Amino acid sequence: MSLIVISGYPCAGKSQRATQIKHSLEQRLADPAYTGPSLTVTVLSDDTLNIPRSAYDDSRSEKPARAALFSAFQRYLGNDRIVIVDALNYIKGFRYQMYCATREAKVRVCTVYVIAPPEQCRTWNTSREDGRSYAPDTLDNLIQRYEEPSSMVRWDSPLFTVPWTDADVPADDIWRAITQGLVKPPNTGTQAVAKAPTDALHTLESTTTALVSAIVAAQSASSLPGGTLSLDVPTSTSTSAPSTPPVKLTLTLPPRHLTLSELGRLKRQFITMHKRAITLGSTEMGKVDWSEESVAHKFVEYLEENVGLSS
């Protein structure tokens, strides 16, 4: 149903804020006055995923750590769950990646920015006795590389800032954001584009070749050049099962015969035009049916529209 992204310096108190948010949300969900859907609150963090602090010592180990966090976040994201991602989330590109996933899943999202001075973070880091402290150089490097959230960008908003001196989080505002905030629909930048079937290119090539052969045969059998040709185009189904009839089409041509070279040129142009939709899953040509019958009909339409231009 929603995602809460917690961001801040290492050892800024993010886990404490995540615990406060989780406790507040669970209290509200258990309140008899609450009449909304049944929801579970889940906190994802380096600790819950067993990611050591040493993973941030260099980029080679940090990338798989972020990938593990993102994979876990995607698994838990759903309509029956509130996910709190309690991690550094210090790279704006990573926060944007999570934002795109929430738009695709059509769930609400907000960001909680936990603020603490660098010196305070260093003090808390050195005082830890649970084995979860950062190496001093790693801590300084992460603080230096930190990219602050901004309410001016869509992937960080709504943004709630929590200074280290505050006793609690803005629970009411967070609750409203994740239960009443706008659910932004997916757009072309966040939607997964459906790919064409794996045999689409083969279907495109074989169907247009069969149609060219059928046109040449129909022209040879006709006593008059051009006009309306009746075509029987065999498909792979009709070839393997003789009881299956071929595709029947009609093609209207100008009063002349089309040469084999002209048909070959138009066929290559048609295939090139559709290759992008096959290889890249492009939606610029709309929804495409890659069946043999559909390709045959589209090729006939293409010929009728372009045969005069190629003469």
TrEMBL record:
GO terms for molecular function: ATP binding. The keyword Nucleotide-binding applies. The keyword Hydrolase does not apply. Keywords: ATP-binding, Nucleotide-binding. InterPro entries: KTI12/PSTK, P-loop_NTPase. GO terms for biological process: regulation of transcription by RNA polymerase II; tRNA modification. Interacts with the elongator complex. Belongs to the KTI12 family. PANTHER family: PTHR12435. This is Chromatin associated protein KTI12. It comes from Boletus reticuloceps.
